Structure prediction request, 326 residues.
Amino acid sequence: MAAVNLDDLESPVALALPPAVPEAMASLVESVSVTPLTNRSIALSWSPLDQGAPFRVYSDMGTGYGIYAYLAQTNEAAFIDEQLRANASYSYRLTLQDDQEEITFAQISAQALGENPLETVPSLNPPSSVVAKPTALPADAILLGLISANDFVDEFKTLSIVGELRNDSGVSVGQTDVTVTFYDSAGTVIGAASGKAMLSAIPPGEKSPFIVSLTKPAGFATYSIRAMGRPVRSQQPAQLAVIEVKRYEDEAGFFHIRGIVENVGTTTAKRTKVAASIYGRDNGVINVGFTYVNPPTLKPGERATFDVIFAYYPRYASQQVIAFED
Prediction:
């Protein structure tokens, strides 16, 4: 198979909005709805068409710059966008294929909710003299190793805690739970938040990035991270290979990790994603991100492009990209 040069490919990120919505789709546009679910998720839904063609969802990732990133392809008339920033506004474009042409049939915006998702935890009294008893783990729980972690706050006062986990057990681990516990300057527990590893199943000895985003807790000085999972059935060996990676900074100041994924297996890969981790010179993680490849369904031997976009990337030195099925 001939090699693919990224410079020869049309960018999968930018999507030009057609001058008008086709008349046949006018009723569909009127029935599109968008609903903020939490401070991290927004739901889109629309009336299905009879074309039988899959829908595609694009997002401006909350940047407001009019550049849309490909999120997903779906045969359902609904989609939930997750891992958002609290209080941030997001614009979406919905498209479908019509006579070999990709047509935008709707553009809609919404703002993620702003509630603080912290779980209330009773304060220790007095905080300096009482030691909390560790919470007992479930009988089948497996603790995951924390390789490194980092945190940052964006202009929307959203705190993001990113890192990488490693499965040091001898079995595949899934159903992960990443719990971040927050403390004030006196060491008092003031709240907790949870997230998941990006990989739904982590094979023995392998690692997975994670991200937990929430409204910055008032008064927090430090935090601790505990990650665990449960044994799951081993999946078939990885059949997705990242065969090319390119990195650059665009004129708007965003950092891109762009590349090509190939299905080197013998079965079709559906809902194909990539997770990208960027590191500093100390090999500690700086930030993590993810996106669906374009197109997300790959038959054996087929290739697709991806573009993971970062707004926060100080002290950047290197990166790693993992391809997997969602």
About this structure: Residues 1-30, 116-134 have pLDDT under 50 and may be disordered. The CA atoms of residues 258 and 307 lie 4 Å apart.
